[in-house]
Inverse folding.
């Protein structure tokens, strides 16, 4: 009521310095108290009515002079949150702007004009202040931004900051904040009968995986409706704001009161193929001229369009093509698939600043299609054996799941296709597919695994030759209808990686993970977008400034002594002492050995056999640096028993398995494996004998990565592969 509003306004106007006490003897100020209440409300996911009830209940616990706001609006004011209208409404039929969702009139001739309009027939659109979004995020992470842009080449050579586009956008005389945009072609979620399409953004100068944390992901706009977004309504305001930022930049004040001016640049926008066609205003991927990057035309078999392999690449589409052809009223066959203009060409160059997301193109796209082919090829009992093989593989804790049976692949989440492809697929195809088919697939595998994540740019050299071979022979194995546009677009992935970094750095996995989390904020079936944007902005108000640094993310070590299985320690104590003696480690009787169950280095997490709460996942299988590896791999397989400290040095007590003189080619007896392919495969897969190991003590710095262990076709032999990137969010 009015009295409540007066009280709220009094509190807000009289507490400008945020020092007024909640009540006379309170240790907290009004603002501090309001922040505590809002954080509690967020943790409990309360709606506005519940928060109002919470406020009423809390007031009864305090003295009569308590200055707590009586309304949710007043609560928001105290923490500095703007409660003004966040969402615009439009008719779903004619896209006329509506002052309220209940407005009857829209456009003459519209189906819904002068009729009661159900909320289902109202489109909701929220567009945020882009400058504020970038400013608040950059300010929160300014320390990491200042460090990472200098050190990214050494820390993560495959990141977008080390791509050719970033180098072209850079200005040696001026700092910059570089933005990656993303929107999806399918709605990320459905609420109240409507679908949500957000435009998300991240700052590339924030290192991964921090840039994908909920506190670093920005939402520039969100569309909630029963139909796909209008390109102009969704993008026009964003494009205009970004264009202004190109000219004005952003000034950020540091804690020491110094100021840094940043140029703002857009490096890329990531799409799946339906979103690419919709937002770039080009033909969908199942039509003629559907490739966004080149002028290949395609050919028809019946009513479907296919894109055959050709040794002569088609000419590339250019930014000039996108601008000129979109302005001309040309017939479809001469427009190269460009249907019309798009606001996006005002802030970026097409198609070099377009990135196709491998999550959809590769994982849930072509690789899932391959599994469908294999499903039809394999006999039922062989498919059951293949499922058993897959379920025999134990994934580390960071994956957050274990493989489901292959017979249930239609129910898999996309991350399962990703991890099957990147780690287990070579062993699978060698074990269960005919040799020629397995060899053919291995060319595809090595192309994707290298593009997904690399440690040195020279790994990209000649990698396209493997996909050329795969594409050239695809129809021989799976028929001409396998040559879809999605396969052709793979030919442009190497160029994309050279421009924008590895596929894992431009992936949609973290984007969809974020929205899946954020949508839990919304309740009911009406005014969903208003709730979404309100809670999104409130949470951004609550996030503290980040205090992380690069050293903490990459090098900082700490150990966990909790949940150590002392029975294992006792059973191997004699062996442990012999290993210490061999290592010339002497113990001071006054300082007992301190043992640990887990070890953390930066964002990497390693367990041990002695960790009693490990559960089913396994994170104690690791790669160990080894100068004496008999196969000159530089690493060998190890099982960590536990970690320990003595004389300020940290060690791991391990089972050490030496590498065997084997390769994946040993599983393909009827067909020779090209040496260039074998050399690449040998970089990723190594073998050891399950029963032959020795106990060793190594420095913890010799532990490099968690590994995935898989059974090989020979008895008592296993194959393992390292997990270099275990923080790709899902």
């Amino acid at each position: 009521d009015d009295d409540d509003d007066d009280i709220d306004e009094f509190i807000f106007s009289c507490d400008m310095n945020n020092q007024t006490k909640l009540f006379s003897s309170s240790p907290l100020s009004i603002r501090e108290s309001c922040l505590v209440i809002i954080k509690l409300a967020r943790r409990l996911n309360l709606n506005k009515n519940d928060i109002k009830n919470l406020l009423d209940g809390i007031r009864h616990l305090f003295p009569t002079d308590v200055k707590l706001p009586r309304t949710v609006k007043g609560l928001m004011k105290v923490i500095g949150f703007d409660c003004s209208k966040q969402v615009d409404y439009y008719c779903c039929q004619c896209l006329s702007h509506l002052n309220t969702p209940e407005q009857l009139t829209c456009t003459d001739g519209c189906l819904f004009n002068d009729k009661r309009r159900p909320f289902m027939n109202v489109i909701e659109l929220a567009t945020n202040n882009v400058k504020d979004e970038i400013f608040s995020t950059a300010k929160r992470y300014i320390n990491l931004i200042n460090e990472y842009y200098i050190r990214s080449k050494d820390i993560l050579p495959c990141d977008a900051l080390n791509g050719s586009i970033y180098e072209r956008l850079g200005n040696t005389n001026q700092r910059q904040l570089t933005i990656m945009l993303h929107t999806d072609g399918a709605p990320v979620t459905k609420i109240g009968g409507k679908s949500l399409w957000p435009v998300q953004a991240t700052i590339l100068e924030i290192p991964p995986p921090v840039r994908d944390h909920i506190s670093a992901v920005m939402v520039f706009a969100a569309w909630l409706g029963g139909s796909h977004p209008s390109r102009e309504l969704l993008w026009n305001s964003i494009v205009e704001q970004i264009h202004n930022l190109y000219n004005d930049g952003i000034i950020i004040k540091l804690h020491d009161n110094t100021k840094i001016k940043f140029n703002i640049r857009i490096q890329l926008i990531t799409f799946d193929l339906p979103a690419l066609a919709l937002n770039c205003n080009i033909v969908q991927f199942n039509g003629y001229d559907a490739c966004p990057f080149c002028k290949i035309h395609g050919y028809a078999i019946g009513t479907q369009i296919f894109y055959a392999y050709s040794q002569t690449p088609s000419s590339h589409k250019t930014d000039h093509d996108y601008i000129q052809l979109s302005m001309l009223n040309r017939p479809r066959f001469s427009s190269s698939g460009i249907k019309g203009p798009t606001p996006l060409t005002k802030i970026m160059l097409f198609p070099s600043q377009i990135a196709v997301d491998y999550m959809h193109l590769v994982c849930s796209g072509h690789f899932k299609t391959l599994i469908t082919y294999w499903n039809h090829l394999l006999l039922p009992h062989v498919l059951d054996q293949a499922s058993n093989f897959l379920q025999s593989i134990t994934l580390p804790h960071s994956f957050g799941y274990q493989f489901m049976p292959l017979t249930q692949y239609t129910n898999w989440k996309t991350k399962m296709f990703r991890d099957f492809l990147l780690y287990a697929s070579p062993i699978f195809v060698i074990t269960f597919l005919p040799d020629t088919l397995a060899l053919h697939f291995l060319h595809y595998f090595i192309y994707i695994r290298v593009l997904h994540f690399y440690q040195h740019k020279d790994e990209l050299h000649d990698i396209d030759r493997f996909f050329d071979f795969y594409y050239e022979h695809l129809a021989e194995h799976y028929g001409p209808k396998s040559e879809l546009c999605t396969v052709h677009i793979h030919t442009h992935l190497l160029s994309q990686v050279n421009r924008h970094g590895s596929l894992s750095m431009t992936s949609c996995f973290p984007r969809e993970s974020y929205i899946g989390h954020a949508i839990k904020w919304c309740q009911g079936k009406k005014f969903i977008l208003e709730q979404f944007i309100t809670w999104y902005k409130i949470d951004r108000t609550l996030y503290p400034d980040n205090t992380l640094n690069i050293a903490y993310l990459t090098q900082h070590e700490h150990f966990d002594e909790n949940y150590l299985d002392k029975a294992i320690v006792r059973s191997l104590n004699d062996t442990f002492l012999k290993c210490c003696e061999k290592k010339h480690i002497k113990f001071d009787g006054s300082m007992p050995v301190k043992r640990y169950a887990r070890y953390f280095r930066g964002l990497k997490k390693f367990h041990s056999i002695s960790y009693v709460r490990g559960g089913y996942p396994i994170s104690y299988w690791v790669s160990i640096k080894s100068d004496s590896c008999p196969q000159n791999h530089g690493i060998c397989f190890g099982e960590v028993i536990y970690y320990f400290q003595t004389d300020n040095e940290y060690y791991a007590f391990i089972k050490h398995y030496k590498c065997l003189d084997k390769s994946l080619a040993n599983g393909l007896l009827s067909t020779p494996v090209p040496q260039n392919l074998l050399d690449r495969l040998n970089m990723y897969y190594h073998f050891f004998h399950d029963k032959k190991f020795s106990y060793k003590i190594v420095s913890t710095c010799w532990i490099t990565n968690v590994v995935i262990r898989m059974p090989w076709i020979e008895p008592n032999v296993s194959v393992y592969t390292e997990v270099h990137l275990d923080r790709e969010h899902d």
User: Anything to note?
Assistant: The mean pLDDT is 90. Residues 384 and 407 are 7 Å apart (CA to CA).
